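Explain this protein:
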Amino acid sequence: MTGYGRSQKTFDKQTITVEIKSINSKTLDLRVRVPLHYQTKEIELRRMLTSELCRGKVDFNLSITGNDDADFRIDTRAFEAYYYQLLEMSGNLGLDKGDLLYTITRLPGVVMQNDGDVNDEEWEKIELVIKEALRHLNHFRAQEGEVLLNDMKMRIELILSLLTQVAPFEQDRMERVRQRLMNNLEQFLPGGKIDENRFEQEILYYLDKLDITEEKIRLSQHCSFFLEVCADKKDSLDKGKKLNFIIQEIGREINTLGSKANFAEIQRIVVTMKDEADKVKEQIANIL
């Protein structure tokens, strides 16, 4: 999920700043930026981040100011050698000297990176700042997760509430189906030639095909199971996958309910259910 964590501390004359940003991703994708002097610690740093962050596209930035130890040094012997050779060549060829200072600093071997190791005391201070930034990031993500969770629970509870509104229409639905079939038969068969017993058998068979009791029961069970998983306080990487599977089943039962309802009032309720289920799917995509 999205999140942001920042921490800054000053030790002696050195200010350490850590910023961590994350956006949704199914896997952990780390992009780490640290000063050159601290790149020897990048593997250890990545290990620390991996242990704290399960997934997400994460940007990590470490900056240190006020450090007396420069990350670079100039090789004066190489600088002088380049300078006198370029000066001699420009004189021999009659060329404009131009900005020799800028030119020389761009040549290989002039500006060198310091190879000094990061001592344990200095790295412990940096680790403290990193851990605090991680706490801020995880707190941010936890808050967002709580908002998403409450939103999904509200929508699933709304689907359960809508399901209870289906029952009052079922008896009227059956009567309308029976009457429609009878009217159709009377149009094509003369009065008095309808076998009432056979007609009732056919009606029962037909209505059984349109019965939505099983779909209602399964939909109610899936919604209850969804809420149970949401209420589980155990942190698990599989929770999002489990919720995603359950919402797929909820959507399937809603679709079947709508196709079998064959009744305008029930289909209106089903459309609202489907809209809420689709919104839950969108929210789950943020936690997968």
